[in-house]
Amino acid sequence: MSSKKAMRQAQKQAFAKHRSNITNSRFNSRKKNLIDKKIKNKSKG
Question: pTM here?
């Protein structure tokens, strides 16, 4: 495999990992916020 091709493939992998990290962290933080809100509502009531 040529170095140019290897570099291109590495960049694609890095970008895909970066995008999946963004979506996962966004989803996980939303999930945490929902759980926190449920706990706060229970403690009030």
Answer: 0.45
Q: What CA–CA distance (Å, rounded) separates 10 from 16?
A: 10
Digit-by-digit pLDDT tens for the chain (45 residues) are 689 999 999 999 998 888 888 777 777 777 777 777 777 777 765
State the Cα–Cα distance between residues 44 and 32, nearest whole angstrom.
19
What is the DSSP secondary structure assignment for residue 1, as one 8-state letter?
Answer: -
d(CA 34, CA 29): 9
Taking alpha carbons only, the member of 15, 33, 35 closest to residue 23 is: 15
